[in-house]
Design a protein that fits this description.
about 100 residues; alpha+beta; 4-stranded mixed sheet; 3 helices
């Protein structure tokens, strides 16, 4: 039997917490977490995953570093815009824009 998709708001409510933040980049609401103090570590997830991949080690790392992790466009809670083409250069451009905010 076919089941419709879960509404995005329900998913967002389930997977955000008090550390969750959002910024707008090129029309996309980018979900990220910024924890700890010190030298910055930017943690990137692999394909078909999310920033939650780093849940197990981010607490330990944030004791010594400022840990920033994000959902890349099209993954987790960052919905890709219609113009995002998922090519390497698009991700590089996106990451440059994201990191320029910090």
């Amino acid at each position: 039997m076919f089941k419709s998709d879960i509404p995005f708001d329900a998913i967002k409510e389930k997977y955000t917490d008090e550390q969750s933040q959002f910024i707008s980049i090129d029309g996309m609401d980018v979900h990220y977490k910024d924890e700890g103090k010190g030298e910055v570590l930017l943690l990137l997830h692999s394909v078909n995953t999310s920033l939650q991949d780093w849940d197990n080690c981010s607490n330990d790392l944030s004791e010594h570093f400022r840990v920033i992790r994000l959902d890349l466009p099209g993954f987790g809670l960052t919905l890709a815009s219609k113009n995002f083409d998922f090519q390497r250069d698009s991700y590089i451009y996106f990451l440059k824009k994201f990191t320029s905010r910090f």
